[in-house]
């Protein structure tokens, strides 16, 4: 299929008309419509209902004019059919009933069979793609480290005490856990691509907890395997994490098409760290979105100027849209980004 999407072209570093833009967590509580639906359904009910999932995934494209949709789901969803009992607590995050701490706990995880285990997700993907037409859908999954951190800690964490302890004290159990989770990530994303996703993003949100030497030793092998398999699908792959200033080069070496940058690293610094071979995605501080438009404009313009003329750039936030964001800021921001050319006028 020949793609004309500016988002897909930028992923491959090819010329395109305007700087593409989408937002992590572009579907969420900052939207009136989303909050209304959430009064009737739990988050998990919404994510498992193909019609609601389609509606919620497509609305940001229709309301904001972003250049891509992202599947409305969660990194935890595939863990359910793998045998993990969890809930998602509002304003807190995922909570796991029986954390994984030993080799025996690990043996209880079963292999993900995406289409059999989560047919509603793939039904939603097909519906979304049909409704979006030429706008691409980004599929996503959690990365092994970030999934492991929830499984081992039992919920969100500040210091990743149990995760690091398992990683260092039981390296063989850790390696097996990384393999099991990497396999699930690849299976889930491959199925999403089979059903119509045109790009995939791997969320390693909490990878910044590791120093680079530990990243290379304990995480990089599984990420290399993930991207080797995903890249064979011939869709762009995006690798995102936060707190990654010292990890960006190693993350790039794992082989994604696009590297997501959080707001702490100046985007020009990220570019000089990783070289020109990889597309960069980011990295407006999400907290600007709760301020007046002038603040959003000032911070976004600095990023756009740093990346002016770089065809391998996708505008996004440095992390997800906060629930307190003003919807108007997001709408204006899309218009503002679209005023910037995707490649130098001379090309
Ligand atoms: O970007 C999108 O619009 C797609 C939807 C999406 C969600 N979760 C929906 C969601 C994506 C890509 C995710 C991934 C995810 N989930 C990550 C990686 C990205 C990131 O933000 O770092 C992580 C770490 C999770 C785990 C998780 N799930 C957290 C930390 C929370 C937030 C808890 C809260 O109430 O603030 C969730 C719940 C969740 N996932 C919500 C949404 C819209 C909020 C649910 C609600 O109460 O309506």
TrEMBL record:
The protein's matches in HAMAP family, at most eight in alphabetical order, are given as: URO_D (MF_00218)
Q: Where is this site: Transition state stabilizer?
A: 74
Annotated keywords: Cytoplasm, Decarboxylase, Lyase, Porphyrin biosynthesis
- Description of how the protein assembles with itself and partners: Homodimer.
Q: What is this protein called?
A: Uroporphyrinogen decarboxylase
The family note in this entry says: Belongs to the uroporphyrinogen decarboxylase family.
Pathway annotation from the record: Porphyrin-containing compound metabolism; protoporphyrin-IX biosynthesis; coproporphyrinogen-III from 5-aminolevulinate: step 4/4
Q: Where in the cell is it found?
A: Cytoplasm
Q: What is its EC number?
A: 4.1.1.37
- Uroporphyrinogen decarboxylase (URO-D) domain location is 20-29, 138-154
Membrane-spanning residues: none
